[in-house]
Design goal:
Blueprint lengths: L2 E3 L7 E5 L1 H9 L7 E5 L4 E10 L3 E6 L3 E2 L7 E7 L5 H12 L3 E6 L11 H18 L7 E2 L3 E2 L10 E5 L8 H5 L6 E6 L7 H9 L3 E3 L8 H17 L1
Parallel strand pairs: 1-3, 7-8, 7-12, 8-9, 8-10, 11-12, 11-13
Antiparallel strand pairs: 2-5, 3-4, 4-5, 4-6
Length: 238
């Protein structure tokens, strides 16, 4: 069933406007009596029957809202070292499909890409990617893409656990680090191409993060976050 996000709470009747009207009527060619799924972006959804379609609005009658089954209980934020052009869209898309709560692009010492004054336009584009991925994967929320942050300004105090993927970690595995976890909020920190500097690891550990190994193979930056997220949610959600 086709899925659409609304900004207001789910009520007995909901009116869709804007781009959704064009997509429903002209692209999908839905008609009166057809059913769609509406999601309020806060974890609730409902089945809605189209009652009327005009040029500017679509009126729907809704069933009672229910919790969305596609939302993990554990809220995972990925701090992603800013990668080369093009990779971030893939990272956002796949991490949203896998269940991330937020994605924060992060500026580190080894980032090849340097932000410009127009960087906000990239955030807006990645947010649109997040919304499309949330619809496709039947999420109950649209994960937020936060503004770019420098590594030394990352606040880890808001998380129950913060884990840094580090290729030189020889002692603690990701699975080992998750054994005693009992909270609801996790931060995952991923370096850019070339990884983290040793001084950056020391800073993050000093701020409360734990350095972990993702295994014996070295993963690309666009692979590491996805792999880490999938493993974390598997361990803590099952």
């Amino acid at each position: 069933m086709h899925r659409f996000f609304i900004k207001e709470p789910i009520a007995d009747t909901v009116t869709l406007r804007g781009e959704d009207v064009k997509h429903i009527s002209r692209v999908l060619r839905l008609r009166d009596g057809d059913a769609i799924t509406l999601c309020d972006g806060r974890g609730s959804e409902c089945v809605a029957e189209i009652e009327s379609i005009t040029k500017d609005a679509i009126c729907c009658r809704c069933t009672a809202p229910i919790p969305c089954a596609g939302e993990p209980r554990t809220k995972v934020t990925i701090y992603q070292g800013l990668p080369k052009t093009g990779k971030m869209e893939t990272i956002v898309q796949k991490c949203v499909e896998l269940g991330v709560d937020r994605v924060v692009p992060m500026l580190t010492d080894r980032c090849v890409v340097q932000p410009k004054e127009s960087f906000q336009s990239r955030i807006e584009r990645w947010q649109r990617v997040s919304e499309e991925a949330a619809k496709q994967s039947q999420r109950g929320t649209i994960p937020i893409i936060e503004p770019l942050v420098a590594l030394k300004r990352v606040d880890l105090s808001q998380y129950d656990l913060a884990l840094v993927a580090y290729e030189n970690e020889q002692t603690v595995s990701l699975k080992e680090a998750l054994k005693a976890f009992s909270g609801t909020k996790i931060a995952l920190l991923i370096g850019p191409e070339g990884g983290f500097e040793q001084a950056e690891i020391e800073h993050l550990v000093g701020e409360g993060a734990q350095s972990v190994s993702l295994g014996t193979r070295i993963l690309r930056t666009e692979t590491a976050g996805m792999a880490m997220l999938a493993q974390v949610l598997y361990e803590v959600e099952t």
